[in-house]
Structure formats: C-alpha cells, structure tokens
Amino acid sequence: MLHYKVYQNNSKNTKLKGKWFARAAVIDTITLEQLSEHMANHNTPYSKGAIYGVLTDMVGCIRELVLEGNAVKIPNLAIFSLGLTTKGADERDKFGSENVKSVHLRARSTGDFTRAELTRAAKLRNTNTLLSAKSDGSDDSGSDDSGSTPGGTSAGGTSAGNTNA
Q: Using CA of residue 71, residue 108, residue 5, residue 130, what is the dihedral sign?
C-alpha cells in the first residue's frame, strides 16, 4: 500500500496557489539489515548474513563506480549515476570545478520500476484520512483510494515544481 499526504500549494506567484496536491508518505525506513532478513525469508538458500554481506559490498562498489564516471544498471530497479548542481559562469572558458556546488546520486528507474509499471501496480491510500481516523477513534473504512491518481504531473512531483517527497 502506497500512502500519500494531501497538501495545499502556498507558493507565491503561481496560478497553482491554493490547489491541492499529494506527496508520497514514507511509513518506515528499512535498513540494509532488515532488507537482508526480508530477503532471507523469501525461500532462498542464502542466510541473512550472506545477503547482508553481498548487499554491503554492492553499495560500496556502486559508489566506487559512479565516482569514476560510470552509470551502474541494476535491471528492474534503477540506473545509478551522479549529477551535478552548478552555478553559472559568464563565459564558457571561465567555468571550472569551482562552479560545481555539489554532486548527488541519481537513480533512474528501469524495467519493472518504470513510472508506468509503478503507477499500474500501486494501491493508494490517503494518509491524512488514515491519521485523522486514528486520532478521533473512528475506523478508517472508506479511506482506501486504490486506483486513484491524486495530484502531480506526468513528470513527477507537482506542477509547482516540487519533486521532493
């Protein structure tokens, strides 16, 4: 179940001010150890420890490879690469490494994790409704919005330009 929170756009100077959108809500953060245990419980001959070791090494290797300028593709998950946030220079020959403000990890979905596949597979629930039902003691029946497509644009995030969840 994918939970979402509804919020109102309060950005100034936009025709979208006052409109309502949704952001994905994270229910919990699963650690690498918890992921390893979850994977070990899926009828695999590998132990939690073996899986944890391989995943830990994989993370380190992906970091090493992307810092060397490579993109790393894990089929049906993502292509990992680095991106840059830069400040502009007035002239091409005046642009140098000092114009790079930061380096960040990019993950582009691939295969079963494409936007279309995830949209088709997601079962949606409004977390605002769930939280308000729990706080007032009533049940949350009827709050399941499975199949709905709240707010956002086909490019992700909202039309207000906020792509951070």
A: negative
* Pick among 1.10.3720.10, 2.115.10.20, 4.10.520.10, 3.50.50.60: CATH of 2-135: 4.10.520.10
Q: What is the pLDDT of residues 66-114, one digit of tens each?
A: 999 999 999 999 999 999 999 999 999 999 999 999 999 999 999 998 9
> Model pTM?
0.69
pLDDT 10s digits, 97-108: 999 999 999 999
> Which residues of the chain fall short of a pLDDT of 70?
130-165
Give the per-residue pLDDT at 43. 87
Residues 80, 115: contact at Cβ < 8 Å?
no
3-state secondary structure the chain: CEEEEEEECCCCCCCCCCCEEEEEECCCCCCHHHHHHHHHCCCCCCCHHHHHHHHHHHHHHHHHHHHCCCCEEECCCEEEEEEEEECCCCCHHHCCHHHEEEEEEEEEECHHHCHHHHHHHCCEEEHHHHHHHHHCCCCCCCCECCCCCCCCCCCCCCCCCCCCC
Residue 107 pairs with which residues in a beta bridge? Answer: 80
